[in-house]
Amino acid sequence: MPTQLPLNDQTLVDAMYCTSCGSKNLGRFTAEMLIHFHGLKNIDRRDVFVFPELMICFDCRSAHFVVPQAELSALAQDLPAR
Ligand SMILES: [Zn+2]
Questions:
Q1: Rounded to whole angstroms, how far apart are CA atoms 55 and 23?
Q2: How many domains does the chain have?
Q3: CA of 51 to the centre of ligand 1 (A)
Q4: C-alpha to C-alpha distances, 56 to 17, 22, 47, 60, 64, nearest whole angstrom
Q5: Ligand 1 geometric centre to CA of 72 (Å)
Q6: Residue 1 included in any domain
Q7: pLDDT (tens digit, 9 = 90+) per residue, 11-65?
Q8: Of 12, 28, 29, 40, which sits most exposed with the smallest number of CB within 10 A?
């Protein structure tokens, strides 16, 4: 299996292998996502729109995308420390 590269905005564009199973049987797509916060305690939190490029593996069915930094910050804001 190929070495997994650190994710950045260019990583998925250049991906040649699935990071989960190593397959080369990938498809590149664009998507619109609305990410919701989990649980009733977060019902008042604003959802976060993300428009990522997806790489979908047709062998293991996994999908990979990178959350842009601004949207990632919005998701991480006020989350309890893990
Ligand atoms: Zn795969």
A1: 12
A2: 1
A3: 22
A4: 10, 12, 24, 9, 6
A5: 24
A6: no
A7: 666 678 998 999 999 999 999 999 999 899 888 999 999 999 999 999 999 999 9
A8: 40
pTM for the model stands at: 0.70
Ligand 1 mean position to 36 CA, how many Å? 26
Q: What is the pLDDT of residue 70?
A: 92
At 60 the pLDDT is: 97
CA of 52 from ligand 1 middle (Å) equals 18
Cα(54) to ligand 1 centroid in Å equals: 13
By residue range, what is the domain housing residue 20?
Answer: 6-82
Is 37 a domain residue? yes
Task: Return the SS3 of 68.
Answer: coil
CA of 3 to the centre of ligand 1 (A): 14
